[in-house]
Amino acid sequence: MNPTSIATVSLSGDLPEKLQAIAAAGFDAVEVFENDFLTFDGGPRDVGRMIADLGMTISAFQPFRDFEGMPEPLRARTFARAERKFAIMNELGAELMLICSNVSPQGLGGIDRAAADLHELGDLAARYGVRVGYEALAWGRHVNDYRDAWEIVRRADHPRIGLILDSFHTLARQSPLGPIASIPGDRIFLVQLADAPKLDMDVLSWSRHFRCFPGQGDLAVADFVRAIAQTGYSGPLSHEIFNDQFRAGSARRLATDGMRSLIALADQTAPHLPPRTGLVDVEFIEFALDEDTAAELARLLSALGFRQTGTHRSKSVTRWSQGGINLVLNTEKDGFAQSHAIMHGPGVCAICLRVEDVEQTVARARELRIAAFEQPVGPGEMQIPAIRGVGGSLIYFTQPKGDLGDIWDTDFIAAKDDAAKRPALLGHVDHISQSMDYDEMLSWLLFYTSLFQLDRIPQLAIADPAGLVESRPIVSPNGAVRFILNGSQATRTLSSRFVSEHFGSGVQHIAFDAPDIFAAVTAMRAAGLSFLDIPENYYEDLEARHGLEPAFIDALREHHILYDRDGEAEFLQVYSHVFAQRFFFEIVERRGGYSGFGAVNAPVRLAAQAREARPVTMPRPLREP
């Protein structure tokens, strides 16, 4: 793996905060962004000493703008500027300066003119013992393609002048990657990496606001790195990210994301980690509760068709099941679940995923710098491997075969009234929806997709009555495990209130599939359950949009079921009321291979929930024992 580096501009905070976060994440080097240096209350030697004390080197001092092709007297001024920067670099301990292609309206074109300027600059750099890397900006006035930048460097023909290649500037312009292989690796002085979502906008705005770490966007960064590898380049791979979300986020979290991204990217281009594991199913979902809310939730689950199928051998924990669904209700007075409930209130504290290979999954998580979790277990009880997940929750792992495939018999005493013998209204967990701060969405997208075999579905903007909610589904190739990541910049959306009023991110709703949603809802209503009220206007519009039979519309209306169609495929969904002002359940039926999530109905659901919501300023945390 190449040495790792990141530009200070990629993170939030002041320079010392950034450097400490970068070092803590394990980077080898750092690009010092000039603005971070200029706003630091100390000299260049102080900065250099601070970086060295943190065990890092400086991969580049950057950027130096509008250099090549300037007419006199501006040309003389650019050389004077460069010499001052070289002197600062000597004090910093920086050996490489990044020059980006000229965007000044005074700049003159011409490859030979630019090459002559860089050759002369190379002589000046030699006097200071430094090197200069030249990079083509995608919006450069005369040079905006790496091939032209390389030709300028080649003609400059100076050992102190080399090329800097940047994935964003290359891929944003859809420049071909093939010619990179013909560039000698020792003439490439630095490789910078950035991904980005595919957006229809000018490239400068795209670059300045929407770059992200590789694996968080849609650009072919792995193909770019494979092309770089063919040159024999062995220097740093360095992140350079401009992103409004990143500037507002936690420097430590983002630096960790950056390192995780580089590790995952290196594995894509030259596999060396345990492979991404396949997801088989959701083994169970665990709720942290006190005795009162556990009793309330048990009544709700009973109405949904669940039955208590087991009791933990030593803990105040029960298992509720139907079909292939297992829910665990934990009312322990100490331990992780209790701590989670005290912090967040009643809700999901853990998800257990059945994976193809637990050992492989845990090993990959460790390589990706994902924190593991362990807590004491009783004699004869199973130690289930776990990692930290969204909002401080846990993700446990089991597998179909071996000791970890037998958790229910090992840790639970089966109830005599076995739910498996009863007709199941519901079959499986269809999807799990997690709400989080908007600036965490890219972090958790990278977390999930770098660890598991999960496909990314295009992000959607959903209209909540209080603002827009961004929603990003990720789905296992077999369709057995689906997560939806939700975040909103608007503070009063349902998603944002969930996070702010309950002290952090977590599971906001769980969807179960039903083989016959009408039969399921009928049975549940007979058991005393009511569902979210849907306006009459919705059904009037539904009839007009899809031309459905009046009897079918009447059945949807009677059962409060929402409907969507994609070609011949159909999707039916119904929602419970919010439980404990915290989370809710959804029941869905997929017909004809429908693969979406009924996004067209989300505004209707959100508006209905907003009408039902009571004003809340604080969660209802569990009481300390």
**Sheet with the most strands, sense and barrel status:** 9 strands, mixed
The CATH homologous superfamily of the largest domain is called Divalent-metal-dependent TIM barrel enzymes
In the CATH scheme, the class of the largest domain would be: Alpha Beta
Number of strands: 26
Q: Could you characterize what this model shows?
A:
The protein is an alpha/beta fold and 625 residues long. It has 3 domains: 4-269, TIM Barrel, CATH 3.20.20.150; 279-421, 2,3-Dihydroxybiphenyl 1,2-Dioxygenase, domain 1 (Roll); 429-612, 2,3-Dihydroxybiphenyl 1,2-Dioxygenase, domain 1 (Roll), CATH 3.10.180.10. Helix content is 35%, strand content 24%. It contains 21 helices and 26 strands. Strand 20 (460-464) and strand 21 (467-475) form a beta hairpin. It starts with a strand and ends in a 13-residue tail after the last helix.
Short descriptors:
625 residues; alpha/beta; TIM Barrel; 2,3-Dihydroxybiphenyl 1,2-Dioxygenase, domain 1; 3 domains; nine-stranded mixed beta sheet; disordered C terminus
In a few lines, what is going on in this structure?
With 625 residues, the chain is α/β, with parallel strands linked by helices. Helix content is 35%, strand content 24%.
